[in-house]
Design brief:
alpha+beta, two-stranded antiparallel ribbon, two-stranded antiparallel sheet, 2 helices, 4 strands
């Protein structure tokens, strides 16, 4: 039972174009919208993004996503060793492996989907 592999692996997946299906509102510091978002952040611990897409009968404003192509690429599965009580270091190590695989997947496919060679995936 030691080192038993889970039947489900971590699989890095990236969707190119997903950030283009909505427009977000630019909130400059000091604006009313920014102040509202900062208040919500203090009160709830998170702030809702302000975004819009297209409407049902119009294409200028609404909550339906814009019609944009989304290309999803799937990487090689990462096997996970079964551990019901992982240490913080083990979790961080697996996270690092996943993020490195995701960045490699992005780098491998980015130019196919219109992203410049000099752009890197940034994980915040």
């Amino acid at each position: 039972m030691d080192n038993e592999i889970y039947r489900a692996s971590l699989v890095p997946v990236y969707s190119f174009g997903e950030s283009d299906i909505y427009d977000s509102t630019c909130n400059v510091p000091g604006s009313k919208m920014r102040k509202l978002q900062e208040f919500l952040m203090k009160f709830t611990g998170f702030s809702l993004p302000i975004f819009h897409g297209r409407g049902i009968f119009n294409y200028t404003m609404g909550i339906i996503p814009y019609r944009r192509r989304i290309n999803t690429v799937v990487g090689k599965p990462i096997p996970v060793v079964k551990n019901p009580n992982p240490t913080k270091t083990e979790v961080e190590d697996m996270h690092t492996i996943y993020v490195d695989a995701l960045k490699a997947l992005f780098d491998e496919h980015k130019t196919k989907y219109g992203i410049s060679e000099d752009i890197s995936l940034e994980i915040i």
